[in-house]
Amino acid sequence: MAEQPGAVAPLVELPAGHLCGAVEGGVAVFKGVPYAAPPVGDLRWRSAQPHPGWTGVREAADFGPSAPQMFSESGDPVLGGHGFPPFDDDCLTLNVWTPAADDARRPVMVWIHGGGFVSGAGSLPYYSGETFARNGDIVVVTLNYRLGPLGFLYLGADHDEPGSGNFWLTDQVAALRWVHENITHFGGDPDNITVAGQSGGAISTAALAGHPAAQGLFRRAILQSAPFGLQIPDPQACAERTETFLKLVGARDVKTLRQVPWQRLVEATMALFGASTRWGYWPTPFLPVIDGATLSRHPAETLLCEGGADIDVMIGWTRDESNFSFALGPGYETATKEQVIGRIADTFEGDAPEVYAAYERTRPGSRPLDVLMDLISDELFRVPSLKLAEARAEMGRPVWAYQFDFETPAHQGRLGAAHCLELPFVFNNFDNWSKAPIVEGIEPAARQGLAHSMHQAWISFVRDGNPHHHGLPEWAPYEADSRTTMRFDSVVSAVDDLAGHSRRLYVRGAQ
């Protein structure tokens, strides 16, 4: 949204220097604020370092560059694009939306974007914090962090900073610490911070809960469509993919890599997609690494251990997560039953035919592709999220669960309730999604009530740790005896054991 004519530009004084923001949509916004030193030159593939600050007044009316990533002018058939120029190595900035830069000590939501660890930016209009700030009296922070090889390439023994493979995570810790130390200047409460993220951003949120340097920096976590079913590798398992990437770039070691323009690194990432893609699996050329220093266990486990267990959690998934990648994917429409049973065998071994039949029964008239997409949605998103909810419930730790069931009519309804579709409802900002094919055909009358219900639930959770509000059916925490799950659809309802079929299937036989 454009800056409002005649509005007085908000000014804040930080330890690093003065910032001059703008007023948009009735809220103050500060864009492109550096939270760490530019990770360029010798700082490329090093942990995030403190920013030296600036002199005078820094203008903060424009977003900073996005992290280097793949980009196509033609966009994509689902989101229309998930990262736009300008791109630059010097990308470690954040953005703040606030009702006022005063001393009101409002609740704070830090939003971490997803994007398969290779795309996205905190500056995308999809993730604008304006609606939350205006409707919830909340301070919202979004951030950029290093993506793809610049954030996720594990260099092992060749690296001169041993044990630090997750440079993206050091960025996020630095941003979170910046928020904790500076948010009072923007009217926020450093003792009432919620970290929220979707997809890869949900992985990030969970990883932060277990990072030693992030302990005590936030109270709540919102995990949207967390792909906790991903196998997070250790350094040894990363070695082959790192070797492949080095060959694609034509570099021998980290010293050589530091001289390679980021554009060449992005080109190699595109090639790595082809080299690492497997039929029936979500493509992930780069992944976090359990390096023992920044990440000591799978992110899904961090919210069950030590300080992470004390964090309030809301977790959810869309009903048809994997339709995002597979419903329109070339080569999948003609998938055969035999192919899908072979893919099921990777998870269920000797029970694959019976599992195929079990999925068929839940969706009468289903094609092999439908069974495949249900399988991937379960094993990558729904079932691991259920396991976390079950474990939290057994520990007596608060957790609220939801499933998003609203279907988009886009692409003749083939996407269903796909990955990412809940986002415009959560942010209640459909105007910002006008160029995203996934929302095409959704009538305002059909979306208005659901968007209000979800947006207010997120506001409620950020404010006091409970997503229930007067516009919803009673939303009780997920407990072992009831397994209450909020079903977000045209009609919102609280359902006991909503995903019971998936839960029982995996308890029975997944390997």
Question: What is the element layout, followed by pairings?
Answer:
Layout lengths: L10 E4 L2 E4 L1 E3 L2 E8 L22 E3 L33 E6 L7 E7 L17 H7 L2 E5 L4 H5 L14 H16 L5 E11 L1 H11 L9 E5 L10 H15 L4 H4 L4 H15 L22 H4 L9 E7 L4 H4 L10 H12 L3 H11 L5 H28 L3 E6 L18 H5 L16 H21 L19 E5 L4 E4 L3 H10 L2
Parallel strand pairs: 2-5, 7-8, 7-9, 9-10, 10-11, 11-12, 12-13
Antiparallel strand pairs: 1-2, 3-4, 4-6, 6-8, 13-14
3D architecture notes:
With 511 residues, the protein is an alpha/beta fold. The protein has a domain at 1-310: Rossmann fold (3-Layer(aba) Sandwich). It has 15 helices and 14 strands. It has helices at 130-136, 148-152, 167-182, 200-210, 235-249, 254-257, 262-276, 299-302, 323-326, 337-348, 352-362, 368-395, 423-427, 444-464, 500-509, and strands at 11-14, 17-20, 22-24, 27-34, 57-59, 93-98, 106-112, 139-143, 188-198, 220-224, 312-318, 399-404, 484-488, 493-496. Strands 3-4-6-8-7-9-10-11-12-13-14 form an eleven-stranded mixed sheet, with helices on both faces. Strands 1-2-5 form a three-stranded mixed sheet, with no helix packed on it. A hairpin with a 2-residue loop joins β1 and β2 (17-20). α5 crosses α7 and α10 packs parallel to α12. The longest helix has 28 residues, at 368-395. The radius of gyration is 22 Å and the shape is globular. The chain starts with 10 loop residues before the first strand and ends with a helix. The mean pLDDT is 94. It comes from Streptomyces lutosisoli. InterPro entries: AB_hydrolase_fold (IPR029058), CarbesteraseB (IPR002018), Carboxylesterase_B_AS (IPR019826), Carboxylesterase_B_CS (IPR019819), Type-B_Carboxylest/Lipase (IPR050309). This is Carboxylic ester hydrolase. Residues 10-492 form the Carboxylesterase type B domain. Its EC number is 3.1.1.-.
